[in-house]
Design goal:
Elements: E1 4-8, E2 15-16, E3 35-41, E4 63-65, H1 76-79, E5 80-85, E6 90-93, H2 95-104, E7 111-116, E8 121-127, E9 131-135, E10 139-141, E11 154-156, E12 159-162, H3 164-186, H4 192-195, E13 212-214
């Protein structure tokens, strides 16, 4: 069996997790170790979780300022129009910046607004292209409920550390459980048979818990 593929926005070198906590205050996504990187099993990404570290000044280095043809940062108030577009769930983009996005090959889903402390204004940023990498070592994940004690190396809050083989087993069990839940919900719809072929994590299912943490590549 080959190595597992993972995907991540930002560098692949382990970084200090400044929000690391211990004890009862540890939240679901708080890192299990003070140093390492977050990632997702390829090709799944929960973009909502990227928001906490998507500022260009963050050590994760996952985003950068969007700049105009003259190299100037683009203020958020100039980038978007006043009309809210319900189809895209955001305000429409100023037409003069649409060609810029096409030229830079930046997708609207990767756009963000970040506050620049230097001049206290909000500017447009975008997520850099994610990195896909292979790994087969020990891994932290949120799928410990599918494992037995002897399959677990250690735990930290909601995190479980295991080898890759046991992680793969837990992941398979989780996908099966999600599939059952999806089919149960889909029975009320006419396209029920179509759902038999669908991947629950490529539909509407939340992927928050698929996040993994790797101490070192």
């Amino acid at each position: 069996m080959g190595k597992n593929k993972f995907i991540r926005f930002g560098g692949l070198s382990p970084v200090i997790q400044t929000h690391y906590q211990t004890g009862e205050e540890k939240s679901f996504h708080n890192p299990p170790r003070k140093r390492g990187i977050y990632a997702f099993p390829f090709p799944y990404i929960e973009r909502f979780l990227l928001g906490a570290t998507d500022d260009p000044t963050n050590i994760s280095n996952k985003s950068q300022w969007l700049r105009d043809e003259d190299g100037n940062k683009i203020p958020s108030k100039d980038f978007y129009l006043d009309n809210y577009n319900e189809k895209i769930g955001n305000y429409d983009i100023n037409p003069k910046y649409r060609n810029l996005l096409k030229k830079l090959n930046v997708k609207q889903a990767d756009l963000r607004s970040s506050f620049d402390k230097k001049d206290e204004k909000s500017y447009i940023t975008f997520l850099k292209k994610p990195k896909v990498f292979e790994y087969d070592g020990e891994i932290w994940h949120h799928l410990g409920d599918y494992l037995k004690p002897h399959q677990i190396i250690e735990t930290s809050g909601s995190w479980t550390k295991s080898d890759m083989g046991n992680y793969n087993y837990a992941f398979t069990m989780d996908v099966r459980a999600a599939k059952r839940d999806m089919l149960k919900s889909a029975k009320e719809f006419s396209g029920f048979s179509d759902f038999m072929k669908k991947d629950p994590y490529k539909s509407w299912f939340s992927k928050d818990h698929l996040e993994v943490f790797i101490e070192s590549l």
